[in-house]
Amino acid sequence: MTPSLPTLPYAVERATAMSRAAGVGGVVLALLAASLPFWGESSWMREFVEIACYFIFAMMWNLLAGYGGMVSIGQQAFFGFGGYVMLILGNFVGLNPFVAIPLGAVAAGLIAVPVSFVAFRLSGGYFAIGTWVIAEVFRLSFANVSAVGGGSGTTLTALRGIEKGTRESVTYWMALACVVAAIALVYLFLRSKRGLALLAIRDNEVAAESQGIPVARMKLAVYVVAAFGAGLAGALYFVGNLRISPDAAFSVNWTAFAIFMVVIGGIGRIEGPIVGAVIFWALNKFLSDYGTWYLLGLGLLAIVTTIFFKQGLWGFAQQRWGWSLFPTQRRLVLRESAVPKRAVPASPSSNTSHLEFHAHAKHQ
C-alpha cells in the first residue's frame, strides 16, 4: 500500500472576511445598478456611461503601468482607434454599433501588436514619450481621412433607427457589464501565476528572466490586453456620445485623467482606479462649472496626494487599517488540529491562528 502523506499543519488562504463581504456587496450593487433604466433618469445613465469609460481606461492603464511597470502617456491611441473602428463598422459596413463595440476592442488589441515593435524599442521616459508620439500619429492619420469626417469628425448614423430610450438603456447595460468584466478579469489575472510573474517583471526584469519568466512575451501580452481595454472604453464612449473627432478621440486628456484617478486612488492596486473614479466623478459633477479653477483643483489634489499619501488614498487606508477588497497576497493559516490545546484562546469563536505573509517571490 502507498503510504499516506502527512497532513500539513497549515493551509494557504487567499480571501479575507472583508473581501468576502465586498464580493457579496458587489453582486448586490451590480444587480441594483442593472435595474436603473427601469426607475432612474436618463441623465444618470449618461453620467454612468461616461465615468465607466474613464474607469475602464484607468483600470487598463493601472494594469500596464502599476503592475507591468510600463508607464505610457499614449494609451489614447487605442481608445480612439477602437472608437473609429466601431464607427466604420456601423456607418459603412452596416453592423449594429452595439455589436461593433467588442470588435473595436479586438481591433485595438490587434493593432497593438505591430505598435509594440516600435514602442518596446524604448524604455523608461523614452517609452512614455514614444507612446505619446504614436498616439499623435494615429490622430493625424484619421484627421486626413475624409471618409470619416477628417479633422472635424463625423456622426454615428447607424443608431438613427433605434429609439432613444432603448439606445440609452442598452448603452448603460453594456457599460455596466464592461465595468464588472474589467474588474473581474484583472483580479483573476493578478491572482494567477501570470500575475505573480508580472509583478516580478515590474520589480526586476533581469531577476525575473533569470528565474525562467518569459519577460518579452509577458510584457507584450499585458500591452495587448491594456490596448484591448482602452479600445473597448473608446468604442463604448462614442456609442454614447454619437459623435467622434480626432481631437476628442486621441486627446492626451484621456491618459491625464486616467493617471489622476490611479494616483489619487493608489497605483498598483485594483481598488485604486475605483476610488479615483468616484473622486473624479464627484469633482467633475460639482466643480466642472468653475472652468480653469476646476483644473487647478484637480492638479492641487494630485500634488497633495503625492506628497502626503504616496501610496494613494486606498494605499494609505490599506497600510493603516489593513483594508483589502481584492486581496492578491497569500495568507498562511494554522489548522485548528495543529494548535496545542493550551494555546487555544478562551473565546469559542477563535478557531484559527493567522500568520500573514506577502506573496513576494523572495518570500516564497
Automatic annotation (TrEMBL):
CDD domains: TM_PBP1_LivM_like. Keywords: Cell membrane, Membrane, Transmembrane, Transmembrane helix. Its main location: membrane. Pfam families: BPD_transp_2. InterPro entries: ABC_transp_permease, LivM-like. It is found in: Cell membrane. PANTHER family: ABC TRANSPORTER ATP-BINDING PROTEIN, HIGH-AFFINITY BRANCHED-CHAIN AMINO ACID TRANSPORT SYSTEM PERMEASE. This is Branched-chain amino acid ABC transporter permease.
